[in-house]
Amino acid sequence: MNPLSTKDGGRRWLTTVGSKPPRNVVAVDDAITADEAYRLAVAGTGLVWHGDYPNARNLLSALSRRCGTAAGKPFQEQRNHQSRRARILGGLLVPLDPGHVLPLRRGPDVRVACTEAYGPSETASLVSLRELLGVVGAHEWRMKGVEIPALGAKIHPHHGVFSPVRGEYVDLVARTPLPTKELAFDIGTGTGVLAAVLAHRGVGRVVATDNEPRALACARENFGRLGFSGLETLEADVFPPGRAPLVVCNPPWLPSRAHTPLERAVYDPGSRMLHAFLDRLPRHLEPGGEAWLILSDLAELLGLRTRERLLAAFERSGLEVRGREDTRPRHPRATDPRDPLHAARAKEVTTLWRLTARAAPVPD
């Protein structure tokens, strides 16, 4: 273990998750023990790796084991544990030379993956090894794509955009009877998968909105690959201007704080997006039109929201339930007893709520 070199000290900090660089850093290599690395990381010291790349990955695994598990703990304790674990594991850093070249023995070529995530680089930088592995994994998913049976094609997620690996919500949109084939809004489009399913089913025009530029770029690329006409993207907080006879929204399912930008696809503090969607929906739904709200009941099973509160939110926004479609999750975590949320996931139901605006009372 050595003091950080001037070269390392002048490197630019890279992150897409908003993490802050450690205040104190030291240069380490293959000689450091896992126990010593864990002690330093817990204290908030950044460890800049200069050894063999596979050994860095081994050290990251050893640090993860030392962080323990929160399985069986209440949900919020699990979230706090995840946050602490992310901080500790994020303390193992690797250098990148200009052009995103990884200067470690037996290190992979990460140039394309890093350029996709961070943009071009002409300066030396530092990045958390844990984040770098996520960047490389996201690049591999982007190249491989996710098979969507309802499309008979693949969707290619970008780094920082939630991947549609949970296919049950896609199947709900693919099978629910369409109230129109004229126009639909897809709110919070992400990869664009639901907008693409609607177009595949014959909806002539779909306006897909998101407030994340990364998501909109991802959706546009997927629309181009699929070759559907009538698919539009628009950066918007929630709704585009105007009204539509069909509005689709798959908001984050859990009303809890997100720790990273990617988690914002899953966690919605205070159900802010859900309530914004419901409260503004009547102004963007054509008379007699239908909104499809896709929600899992996982929040209810975890004690984060009650069914009564959800139904009361519908009522407060002037909405009525026209019908619903339910399905059970098929993803591996739903049947994995090692998953910390297994007890809730084993009972989980995902619902497509068919909502319509309540008719205004007719004056005497």
UniProtKB/TrEMBL annotation:
<dbReference type="InterPro" id="IPR050320">
    <property type="entry name" value="N5-glutamine_MTase"/>
</dbReference>
<keyword id="KW-0489">Methyltransferase</keyword>
<protein>
    <submittedName>
        <fullName>SAM-dependent methyltransferase</fullName>
    </submittedName>
</protein>
<dbReference type="GO" id="GO:0032259">
    <property type="term" value="P:methylation"/>
</dbReference>
<dbReference type="InterPro" id="IPR029063">
    <property type="entry name" value="SAM-dependent_MTases_sf"/>
</dbReference>
<keyword id="KW-0808">Transferase</keyword>
<dbReference type="GO" id="GO:0036009">
    <property type="term" value="F:protein-glutamine N-methyltransferase activity"/>
</dbReference>
<dbReference type="InterPro" id="IPR007848">
    <property type="entry name" value="Small_mtfrase_dom"/>
</dbReference>
<feature type="domain" description="Methyltransferase small">
    <location>
        <begin position="154"/>
        <end position="296"/>
    </location>
</feature>
<dbReference type="Pfam" id="PF05175">
    <property type="entry name" value="MTS"/>
</dbReference>
